[in-house]
Write a structure and sequence with these properties.
Elements: E1 7-10, H1 11-18, H2 29-41, E2 45-48, E3 56-59, H3 61-78, E4 84-92, E5 95-101, H4 132-142, E6 146-152, E7 156-164
Parallel strand pairs: 2-4
Antiparallel strand pairs: 1-3, 4-5, 5-7, 6-7
Helix pairs in contact: 1-3, 2-3, 3-4
Length: 169
Amino acid sequence: MSSTARDSRSIRSFTTTATSASPSPSWPPRRQVGATLDANARKITFKVAPIDRDLTVDADRQMLGSAVSNLLQNAFKFSRRNGTVSLTARAADDRVLIEVEDECGGLPPGKAEELLRPFEQRSSDRTGLGLGLSISHRAVQANDGTLNVRNLGGKGCIFTIDLPRSGGN
């Protein structure tokens, strides 16, 4: 990625790019509408935790916004009807963690990391190509981060984007 594609951005700008209930002037409204419509159509409660305005990373806004959007789309798609999907962002030492928690019912043991491979589908719902999580994974890696999956047996999953925090914070 070229150095001109990256800049220091507030985490709030990345998460609002994907979902925010109170868009910033640079926020693309179509993404907000899409996330809200997707959650509403599936009877999902969507919660976005308040985000510290000073939480920043050096990253490509479009790539990171796309990664968060893909995680949310999957969470809406696989969460049980009348369930909840949550989006949080927080600092952890010199890292920034963006988490999408769903209520998909959990994963079979040892299957979480397999979801990040291209064309991997673990559900009877085959409406996609199985590329969303792989694309998210690669976008996060391109921004010097990692994407991890934590299984909450019988409940759901937490997908965590882990990025280096911008200097001076």
